[in-house]
Inverse folding.
């Protein structure tokens, strides 16, 4: 967002001192969220539990918090909640495909997700994914970066997405994300614009 802050004023702003202010918030998966709500710190499958709190037909297990707070406040949620997955809908073993099955997405919704890259699930709850690039049938968000970025060496090591990669030769996603954050001004984020466009569109249209 920082790279294109002028294009998305409803997502981020920059003051005269050069400090950025995000107008969207990001879920911090804490131990407390894991303990009370089953939203684990790692893994996209944890978002199934979050989805259940918006859609459950039961008032107890799990509780439908969306219904509960709408009832006691007599108003709709003020802001949208957007779940973002890697674009791997065609792979039945991957989180997005499993989540789509969990949500029982119909054919029209699946087609919309493939073409528009987002779909409304329930009230203020949305599902979004990244675009496919280079003719790929499935695509992780890291694929949106160019090879020059993906092949960046840090302390003599190269990036690997594999959890069991040799730490003597590779660094993982956390170090990679820190590198992206620190070097964003030099990095090409052109492939991310469809995601930012959709994020901006969802926020704007939900008002």
């Amino acid at each position: 967002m920082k790279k294109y802050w002028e294009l998305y004023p409803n997502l981020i702003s920059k003051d005269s001192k050069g400090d950025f202010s995000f107008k969207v918030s990001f879920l911090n998966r804490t131990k407390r969220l894991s303990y009370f709500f089953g939203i684990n710190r790692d893994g996209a499958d944890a978002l199934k539990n979050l989805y259940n709190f918006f859609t459950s037909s039961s008032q107890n297990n799990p509780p439908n918090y969306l219904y509960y707070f709408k009832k006691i406040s007599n108003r709709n949620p003020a802001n949208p909640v957007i779940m973002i997955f890697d674009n791997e809908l065609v792979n039945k073993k991957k989180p997005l495909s499993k989540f789509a099955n969990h949500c029982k997405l119909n054919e029209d919704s699946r087609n919309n997700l493939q073409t528009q890259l987002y779909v409304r699930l329930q009230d203020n709850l949305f599902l979004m994914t990244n675009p496919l690039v280079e003719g790929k049938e499935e695509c992780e968000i890291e694929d949106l970066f160019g090879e020059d970025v993906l092949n960046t060496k840090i302390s003599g090591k190269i990036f690997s997405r594999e959890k069991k990669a040799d730490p003597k030769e590779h660094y993982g996603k956390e170090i990679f994300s820190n590198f992206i954050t620190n070097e964003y001004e030099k990095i090409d984020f052109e492939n991310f614009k469809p995601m930012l466009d959709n994020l901006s569109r969802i926020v704007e249209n939900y008002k």
